[in-house]
Structures are given as C-alpha cells and as structure tokens.
Amino acid sequence: MFFPNNRKFKKSKKLVSKGIERRTINLKFGLFGLKALGNTRINSKHIETARQAINRKVRPFGKVWIRLFAYTPVSSVPLKVRMGKGKGGVSYWGCSIKKGQILYEISGVSEQKAREALRIGGLKLPVKTKIVKY
Fold this sequence. Notes:
The structure is a single chain. This protein is α+β, with helices and mostly antiparallel strands. It is built from 2 helices and 7 strands, in the order ββαββββαβ. Helix 1 (about 45-60) runs antiparallel to helix 2 (about 110-125).
C-alpha cells in the first residue's frame, strides 16, 4: 500500500479538490498515460489495485510510473459512538485528484497493449479516466 512512513502530524483535514490541475497535465516519463476526467479523493487501495492490474498486462517488458501518492490521512469515528471523545483514528490514506491530472504512465510496450492495460487500470479507479498518448 502507498502511504508515508512518518508524518509531522498524525491527523489532518480532509482535502476536497476543486478546479483543474495545472502542474501534472503532461506526460513526463512514458509514452502513454491515464488522465483523470473529474475531481475526487482516491485512497491507497485504489492506487495499488490499479497498479497491479496495469502491471499484469505490461509484464515483463513494460515500465509503469505512478504519478500520485496517498499522503493525506482520513480519519473516521466508528458507528454507534456518541458525540465528543475526539476525532477518531485514521481509517485510510488518500490523495486529492483534480481534473486533468496524469495518474499512471507506461512505456516499453506496443500501443494496443498499453491501451488495454490502462483501460483495465482505469476501471479500478473511482473516477472517469482517459488514455493519452505522447
């Protein structure tokens, strides 16, 4: 799973992404990429599941780059707990995704194989995605 080893503060506020991504909108490492078409929060389980699905298709010659990381702790209080008693424990790690952000990149395989791998990986994510080419 993808989450940091240590942090300065144990808990933080939930990030809600708004607007359009301006920094990570172009392919930097690979020839094919998976681009997000909406704003959402993705947890570390989604990132890992999509990575495994993509790796199954591009093995053994392809290379995959992950352009997102779950750095935000999201806490929640269990059900049937009364008001007060603090914020609650960290339930999962997540990251905020903006529209237009590149999530995964692939190189070293044919276009047909790369498109199939990214399509299957995109189905594992809770956001609509689009395959882009360099």
